[in-house]
């Protein structure tokens, strides 16, 4: 889905940029030509005209060069080279790496001209396209232009680009509210939002046990006799008991402040205990009320 809104935004940005550049160059060129023309004598003008006619004739009868064949796909109906083709986009992305246009122009190059890019160019363009900052700026521009739903999709890409950046979750919440989406506590695991609303109990966040565990690719089990839930992943086993402050991590006793509980038929467990025991980071973003669980290191404040 990224291609739809990034290409749309790229067109808006590129057309805006190139229109301004073209207008400026055209105006500057005319002023320069007028000044030069005023200084020329009749003899000079005749010689210039003769040289131009010879040059045009030679060019007309010359075979097409490789560079022409590569870059003239952006010619307009007057057969003039434009700024929106492959070569123009390469120049544009160099000047917009840290701007909203950077991510979308990089995406346009990767999707429209993949066969012309070197492996090094592909790597660099993918880094630009996947920059969470550039994607967030692009989302802001979409929102400013009234494309709030597309801004939400773009910001979701920004979240996935850096799942540890809590600012991205704030922005996503802002755009989501503008798009009329429901608010409240949310659960994100590795950047993906899950339709399982967490709850807060005495300052401890509890999340649906099965949802959080399976999102981390862990095995889960329920022992109805003991009323215990167990999650296992990568050799680590966590066992919690409903309505009990005792827990076991790899068989070793562990005390928790808020026990697991059953709410409307769903087993809710302290997210910090499960997440950190399985090697994940667990953060709380208060403005968007987002529980953020991910497996990348960060210096952000913990939940």
Automatic annotation (TrEMBL):
Domain of life assignment: Bacteria
Matching InterPro entries: Cu_amine_oxidase-like_N, Mao_N_sf
Signal peptide: 1-24
Bias-annotated ranges (Basic and acidic residues): 25-60
Keyword terms, alphabetized: Signal
Pfam families assigned to the protein according to its UniProt record, in alphabetical order: Cu_amine_oxidN1
Region (Disordered): 24-66
SUPFAM superfamilies linked: Copper amine oxidase, domain N (SSF55383)
Segments forming domain Copper amine oxidase-like N-terminal: 189-292
Protein name: Copper amine oxidase N-terminal domain-containing protein
Source organism per UniProt: Paenibacillus ottowii
